[in-house]
Amino acid sequence: MRAVVQRVDGARVEVAGETVGEIVGEGLCVLVGVTHEDTPQKAAQLARKLWSVRILQGEKSCSDTAAPLLVISQFTLYGDARKGRRPTWNAAAPGPVAEPLVDEVVAQLRTLGAHVETGSFGADMKVSLTNDGPFTVLVEV
């Protein structure tokens, strides 16, 4: 699994003009990509990392401050544009494999005590955020 994690001061995701997920104030906006070899165990590992990674102000984590997370599925994180002019998506897991694993990341975060908002899997989403820093890291498990 791969996640692009952005420290934000507010973020939201809209589908068809309606807000489906939003966090206010300091938190993390997390774009999650799934590949073919990923498992529920990797989803749990990613959730623990997201909950505990110390990238908020003052080197704090979401677990330290109860900061919310906005988790959005994004298959394009496994796009490969090394050849030609059009990316390939071969490394991205198909929806029936990826969706339950993204849901598992969210469920595991909630089990840890996190407030989690989400996008809508497979939808055309509009994501807006204020990147705080800017601060963006790539997390792979």
How would you portray this structure in words?
This protein is an alpha/beta fold. It has three helices and five strands, in the order E-E-H-H-E-H-E-E. The chain has a five-stranded mixed sheet. The chain is globular and about 40 Å long. The N and C termini lie close together (6 Å).
Oligomeric state of this protein: single chain
Q: Strand percentage, roughly? A: 35-45%
Distance between the termini: 6 Å
State the major sheet: 5 strands, mixed
Strand order of the largest sheet: 4-3-2-1-5
**Rg result:** 14 Å
SSE blueprint:
Layout: E1 2-15, E2 18-33, H1 40-52, H2 62-65, E3 69-73, H3 95-112, E4 116-118, E5 125-140
Parallel strand pairs: 2-3, 3-4
Antiparallel strand pairs: 1-2, 1-5
Features:
single chain, 5-stranded mixed β-sheet, 38% strand
Briefly say what this structure is.
The chain is an alpha/beta fold and 141 residues long. Helix content is 25%, strand content 38%.
